[in-house]
Design a protein that fits this description.
alpha/beta, Rossmann fold, 7-stranded parallel sheet, 9 strands, 20% strand, globular
Length: 239
């Protein structure tokens, strides 16, 4: 297994991409610390993943400095260091001009930008050399344009630029930083299903496993010469 014995933190373990990523990392042999805001959701995650012994669940809000420090403390108590971080926390809402609200914009900034930066800032001392950080941008923040979601596009463009900046800043510590830029994803995840049969090239949406598999690859030695990249994972969709 490519990640046998590696300690990987996954922040933002929702029912789709986050759980799919935790599942693929566990299958590849990693010890996984899974972070979500609510205990009851983490109980569902444990049920979905059949409560593997190498899964640590942490309930915390990563979009605050206090929450990031709580995550760091819990990880430090369990692991002797961190080999990888998948920063998957996110939020999406339409934000057309003329009906944009302060709450909508603040929620997207907090989830998509504050959370990954706060967690990485807090947990940096635990990161080992040759570790991997993966963030989540979007094709709408990097490669494509759509109407009605300017705040989301701007925040995800910020994640892409943060990825490039962090890769430059942390290269001397032997830490790689990359991002995936998905299109739309289906909301649910089921372990062991034939997910590749659920889409074809050019589809505007994909199962979360398509994106999770790229995140898992970025954690492996196979990707050890990749840093500062924002990788589109959109199946060639035109929209």
């Amino acid at each position: 297994m490519r990640l046998s014995g590696k300690n990987i933190l996954v922040v933002g373990v929702g029912p789709g991409l986050g759980t799919a990523t935790a599942y693929m990392l566990l299958k590849d042999g990693a010890n996984v610390a899974a972070v979500a805001r609510k205990e009851e959701h983490l109980e569902k995650v444990k049920e979905t993943l059949s409560e593997p012994a190498n899964l640590l669940c942490i309930a915390a809000d990563a979009s605050s400095m206090e929450g990031a420090q709580k995550i760091t403390k819990a990880v430090a108590e369990k692991f002797d260091g961190v080999d990888g971080i998948a920063l998957l926390a996110g939020s999406y809402a339409k934000s057309p001009m003329g009906s944009m609200t302060e709450d909508t914009v603040d929620a997207m900034v907090s989830a998509n930008l504050k959370a990954p930066l706060y967690v990485l800032n807090s947990i940096l001392p635990l990161l080992k050399g040759n570790s991997s950080v993966v963030m989540v941008s979007s094709v709408f923040g990097t490669y494509k344009i759509s109407s009605g979601n300017v705040a989301y596009a701007a925040v995800k463009a910020g994640v892409a630029k943060a990825t490039e900046s962090l890769a430059h800043e942390l290269v001397g510590k032997g830490i790689r930083v990359n991002a995936v830029a998905p299109n739309s994803m289906d909301p649910g995840f089921e372990p062991g299903r034939e997910w590749r049969s659920r889409r074809k090239l050019g589809d505007p949406t994909c199962p979360p496993e398509d994106v999770a598999s790229v995140i898992a690859w970025l954690m492996t030695e196979e990707a050890s010469w990749v840093s500062g990249a924002v990788i589109p994972v959109d199946g060639g969709a035109k929209k």
